[in-house]
Each structure stands twice: as C-alpha cells, then as structure tokens.
Amino acid sequence: MVITRKKTVNFIDKLPLGEDVKRYWDLLSVLIPQSLNARYRGSFLGVYWSLLNPLIMTGLYTAIFGATFASYFGDSIVNYMLAAFTGLLIINFYNSSTTQALSSVVMNGDLLNKIKLPVPVFPLAMIGANIFQFMVGSFPLLAIVTLVKTHNPLNVLLLLFPFIALVLVCTGVGFFVSALFVFFRDLGYFYEIATFIVWITSPVFYPAEIIPARVQPILYLNPLVPIIESLREISLNGALPELSHLMRGFLSGIIILTLGWLFFKRVQSSFMDLL
Q: What is the pLDDT at residue 88?
C-alpha cells in the first residue's frame, strides 16, 4: 500500500500542474475538516442538522400544499412529500454552499496577508464541506427513498449525476460571489434576495406544470430547475432521467463554473489591497 501511494504521488507530481493539484488537495484536507469542526463544535447532531431543515420544511409544505398539488404527483400526498423533499435538498445545498463561499476569502484575509496560499482554495473548501455534509447527512436518506420507490440499486448510483451538476453550478457561483464580495461588502444583503429568487423560481413546493407556458422559458433560465427535475425522475419515477434535463444541468454547470473561475482569476490580483 505504501509503495503504491508513493508511485501515485510521484506520477501526479510529474503531470502538468500536478504540484498545484497536490497542494490544493493537501490544503482542502485541512480546511474542510476545520470548517466542519468550527461549524458543529459542541453540536449534538453535527452534520445531521443539515437534514433536519429539509425534513421540517417538507412537513410544512405537505401540510399546506399537499392536498392542492397532489393531483400533479399521481394523486398521492406521499409522492408530493417526497418531491418536495428532493427539491429542498437541492435548494438547501445551493443556498448553504454558495452563501458560505461568498465570505470565505474575506474571512481569511488575515491569513492570506501572512501566508502565501492559493486563494481559490477557500471557496472550494466551503463547497467541499457541504459536499461532505450532504453525502453523510442527506444522501443516505435519499438513497433509501430511491430504493423504496424504484426497487433498483442502479438508480442510487444515478443520483450522483444531477448532484455533480449541482456541485459544478455551486462552485462556479461560489467563485463569482466570493471574488465580488472582496470589492462589495454589501453583496451579502443582495445575495439573500438572489437566493430567494432562485428558490421561488425552482419547482420545490409546486409542480413546474402550473407555470404558464409563456413564463416557463424564463423559469428554465434557473440552472437548478433541470437538476431538480432529473433528481426526481431518478429517485421517484424509477426511470432514467430525460437526457435533456441532465444535459441542461451539466451544460449550465460547466458554463457557470468556467465563467466563475475566469472572473475569480481575472480580479484576484486586486484582492490583497482590499483584505
């Protein structure tokens, strides 16, 4: 095992940018546990608090809207409840990861003034912490729901595809807002409005079918919509998701990640004057 690991590390180091990748990995392996420990120090439930919020909100949505929208989910309140739960997992991951990434560079300004570190590692660490939180807290329950509804273990593996698209979107947004926050410290207040707009335009507690046809093209500008739809198709319908949903999700993720990364690198040289 030791010999294999040394060979792997040496091979990575010889690759173009291999040393940078290794450095990022080493820093993330420190920053992600540090972030989780700081967030849940003294907490009884720890990372499982991230699961409590969507469960409570699912109960509220079901009590208020379940009877109204059940007809869109096979006349089943249970189906509506599960659909709301999957939508909430997506929107909560987006809100949590991008909001934490927003202030990550500024919060570590003192550290950056003392030690030369790759600045993008800080928003990446916030995204990584939320990935770990999701995989430990929410994913097991989502996998159980998928197995119960579809009776197909393959669908559990397919859940990773919309989740990867979600991570791409959140990482790109995280790069963009964390860089912008260095220059505009009021961005946090505006971003609360932005996350509300993303939430209300995502079919979380309502079916997308109720949106008027003339408005639906605007709705699908929200990159989370195809991700939510494909996740529901995999976990609740027991069928392969529509390829168009997955393609839109991945395409949105790649575009947002690329633009966010380019913007971050473009303005990074001005950070130190403002931190």
A: 95
Tokens at 160, concatenated: 């990773």
Q: Amino acid letter at 140? A: P
The Cα–Cα gap between 7 and 14 comes to 11
Amino acid at 254: I
Domain extent at residue 66 = 19-270
pLDDT tens for each residue of 160-186 = 999 999 999 999 999 999 999 999 999
Q: Does residue 14 lie in a domain region? A: no
DSSP run (H or E) holding 214: none
59 falls in which pLDDT band (50, 70, 90)? very high
pTM value is 0.89
Closest CA to 149 of 58, 242, 239: 239
Q: Is residue 6 part of a domain?
A: no
Domain count, the chain: 1
Cβ(224)–Cβ(94) below 8 Å? yes
Looking up tokens 């004057």, which residue turns up? 273
Per-residue pLDDT for 1 more than 50? Answer: no
Question: Is 199 among the domain residues?
Answer: yes
Residue with tokens 């091979």, as numbered in its chain: 11
Determine the pLDDT at residue 87. 94
Which has more confidence, 6 or 37?
37
Position 7 pLDDT exceeds 50? no
Q: Which long-range contacts (CB under 8 A, 24 or more apart) does 141-150 make?
A: 141/51, 142/86, 142/89, 142/235, 145/82, 145/85, 145/86, 145/235, 145/236, 146/234, 146/235, 146/236, 149/82, 149/235, 149/236, 149/237, 149/238, 150/234, 150/235, 150/236, 150/237, 150/238
11 part of a folded domain: no
